[in-house]
Amino acid sequence: MPSEPTEVQVRPGVEDDLEALTALYNHYVRETAITFDTAIFTPEERRPWLLSHPEDGPYRLMVATAPDSQQILGYATSSPFRAKPAYATSVETTVYVAPHTGRRGIGTLLYKALFEALSGEDLHRAYAGIAQPNEASARLHERFGFRYVGTYREVGRKFGRYWDVAWYEKPL
């Protein structure tokens, strides 16, 4: 059965996505405390981030696109949890969805694709830090088997105030 023309496509991120991914991320830098970055990026400044997510291995970048326009609707990543070697089987995961696409299931599609891609990797745990409050992100993570493990209180300062980050973990 052919897919509907409005069906969202999810695929690995590629270098041609850099400008759109940077613009999406910069929205969250400028407008929200969801990321603790405080200065926007140029695509060239974001290039090392993109290149650190190859199409195979434990550190992935999945993007959701609209099939008609190929507009990027969101992305999900798995990245190193910490730099020390004993953390190699742990990843930190995150999802960013374009502001105009909320509540359409884009985050769910992205995480489904990400965790399918990671299923053959030598990974033991995934972690996610969620700046508070963010009920939608907490619900998404819980749907994927993450469980709440604790909160870092007032760990980040942005927009002249301190923010808490709730931490979630998932066995892989």
Automatic annotation (TrEMBL):
Signal peptide: none annotated. Keywords: Acyltransferase, Transferase. Residues 8-172 form the N-acetyltransferase domain. The keyword ATP-binding does not apply. It holds the Pfam family Acetyltransf_4. PROSITE patterns: GNAT. This is N-acetyltransferase family protein.
